[in-house]
Structure formats: C-alpha cells, structure tokens
C-alpha cells in the first residue's frame, strides 16, 4: 500500500491488519503486541511458557485487544511449522506483518562457548528468523496491503562487545538478512526492515551473568544516559509496519539512545 494520496488516519493506522509477533509474553515482544493491537491489528503471538502466555492473553482480552496465542519454541523447526499453520488458520491464509522478536542472549567468553551454546543461540535467534520468514512468505504474498517483516536485532550486531560473540553474530546476520530479503521480496510487495535496540529494560538486561563493569562502561558512553523502555522500541516497529512507511525497506534502524554514534 502506497502512503501518498491516503488520509492521515489511513497512513498512521493498522486497522484490519493481521500480525504474528514471536516472543510476546514478555519484554519488547509484549510491548510490540500491545502497540500493534492498539493501532487496530489482530495479533497472534507465541512463547514457550504456556501459563505466562495464557495470563497475557487474558489481560489483553480485558483491555479489548484482539490477540491470540499458541505455545512454540522458535528454535525447533517442527514448532515453527506448527506455528505458521496456526497463523494461517487464524487469519484465513493472509498475514500482513511478521515480527521476528523472540531471542535469547548468552554472556560468555568466546573461548568458553560450547557447541551446544552455539547451536542453541543460532537456532533461537537466527535460524528461526530465516525459517519463519520463509514460512510466512506465501501468507505475506496474500496480503492485500503488501506484507511487512520486521526483525529485532541489536546494536551488538554493529559494535564489538566482550562476552557476546555468538549473540552478536546472530544479530549481525539478521541485519544482513534484512537487506537480502528486502532486495529479493520488493517485487512481491513485501517490505523487510530491522530494528536494532541498545539496552532495553527487560529480563535480558537484568541477566545477572552480565559483568557489572561492562554495564558501567556501557552507561558511561551512552549519550542519553539511560536504557530504553520496551515501548520505545515497539513504537518504531509499529511505524515500520504502517502505510506511512510504504517506501521504507532493507533498513536497520538503531533505537539506542545514541550508543552507535558516540
Ligand atoms: N533487552 C535488551 O536489552 C535487548 C537489546 C537488544 C536486542 N534485544 C532483542 O530483543 C528481543 C526480545 O528481547 P527481550 O529483552 O524482550 O527478552 P525477554 O524479556 O527475555 O523476552 C523474550 C520473549 O521471547 C520468548 N522466547 C524466548 N526464547 C524463545 C523461544 N525459543 N521460542 C519462543 N519464544 C521465546 C520469551 O518467552 P518464553 O521464555 O516463555 O519462551 C519472551 O516472551 C530479542 O531478540 C533480543 O535479542 C534485546
């Protein structure tokens, strides 16, 4: 859908859109679900913990948001296939928005990372992102407004941070996947973008295995002097999915309080 010629209300709305957001029970994914649903989208989300997911679903229902849920471990291929089959049924074969958000961090010296560590982080963060995009492609093609894919990477995909080598590799690859898919799918009317947050107040940033010295150093070189709230990332994701962003594709946008320019 091209923004030009449309009313302000149409350009800045997601009314009637359908969306899949992975990892919506907590943190950034939770805020993205609420932001997209708040702008009028019907959203499906997933996580591994069924009880937490169901508690979220009930709260969203009370708020009048249209959100459905299903359990899925995005690191498992068959779970991803089941998830997309559920999404296909839920939204009658059409998907307007895919947000690949679910991810895990690993704070560990590169020399100490095991083969299992490597395989687990790669499968959760990167393979899931590629495979879910592949699985969503026919559903996005069926979108009447043009599909939009948003990956959630990290500033760790741009800069070198100690004890984050494997995690950062997945995020750097997601940034490149964004450009590659955007070039390949532009002719299909599908836009592909990426949001790269800096530190965000979630369970990941509260991880007790993070070296407090690294946190202190990071805060000292952060121009805005504070980490982000999840809603500050979610608003950028919503923008990228709207008709207002109809000429945006292949971009990796840092939402990082200025960390990557300091
Ligand atoms: N927080 C930050 O500072 C920060 C900075 C840059 C980038 N990011 C990125 O932002 C994304 C979200 O991070 P967050 O901080 O919001 O994390 P979070 O608070 O830990 O939430 C992660 C969400 O993803 C789900 N999840 C995790 N592993 C999953 C799996 N294998 N399958 C399905 N769902 C899974 C979790 O639910 P279950 O545990 O129940 O599965 C939860 O809903 C990640 O990709 C992360 O790398 C975060």
Automatic annotation (TrEMBL):
Alphabetical UniProt keywords: NADP, Oxidoreductase
Domain Ketoreductase, residue spans: 17-198
SMART domains for this protein: PKS_KR (SM00822)
Pfam families: adh_short_C2
UniProt GO MF annotations: oxidoreductase activity
Secretion signal span: none
PROSITE patterns: ADH_SHORT
SUPFAM superfamilies according to UniProt: NAD(P)-binding Rossmann-fold domains (SSF51735)
InterPro entries with a match to the protein in the record: KR_dom (IPR057326), NAD(P)-bd_dom_sf (IPR036291), Sc_DH/Rdtase_CS (IPR020904), SDR_fam (IPR002347), TR (IPR045000)
This protein's name: Ketoreductase domain-containing protein
Species: Setaria italica
Lineage of the organism: Eukaryota, Viridiplantae, Streptophyta, Embryophyta, Tracheophyta
Gene this protein is translated from: LOC101755235
């Amino acid at each position: 859908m091209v923004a030009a010629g449309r009313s302000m209300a149409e350009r800045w709305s997601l009314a009637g859109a359908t969306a899949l957001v992975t990892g919506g029970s907590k943190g950034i994914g939770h805020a993205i679900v609420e932001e997209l649903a708040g702008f009028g989208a019907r959203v499906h989300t997933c996580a591994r913990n069924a009880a937490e997911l169901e508690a979220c679903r009930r709260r969203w229902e009370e708020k009048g948001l249209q959100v459905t849920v299903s359990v899925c471990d995005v690191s498992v291929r068959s779970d991803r296939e089941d998830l997309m089959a559920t999404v296909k049924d839920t939204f009658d074969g059409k998907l307007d928005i895919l947000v690949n958000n679910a991810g895990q961090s690993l704070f560990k010296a590169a020399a100490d990372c095991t083969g299992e560590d490597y395989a687990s982080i790669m499968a959760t963060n990167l393979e899931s992102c590629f495979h879910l995009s592949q699985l969503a492609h026919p559903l996005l093609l069926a979108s009447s407004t043009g599909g939009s894919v948003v990956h959630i990477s990290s500033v760790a995909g741009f800069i070198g941070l100690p004890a984050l080598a494997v995690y950062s590799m997945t995020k750097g690859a997601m940034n490149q996947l964004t450009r590659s898919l955007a070039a390949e799918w532009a002719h299909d009317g599908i836009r592909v973008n990426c949001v790269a947050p800096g530190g965000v107040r979630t369970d990941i940033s509260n991880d007790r295995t993070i070296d407090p010295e690294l946190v202190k150093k990071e805060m000292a070189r952060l121009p805005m002097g504070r980490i982000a709230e999840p809603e500050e990332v979610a608003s950028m994701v919503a923008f990228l999915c709207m008709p207002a962003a109809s000429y945006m594709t292949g971009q990796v946008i840092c939402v990082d309080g200025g960390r990557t320019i300091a």
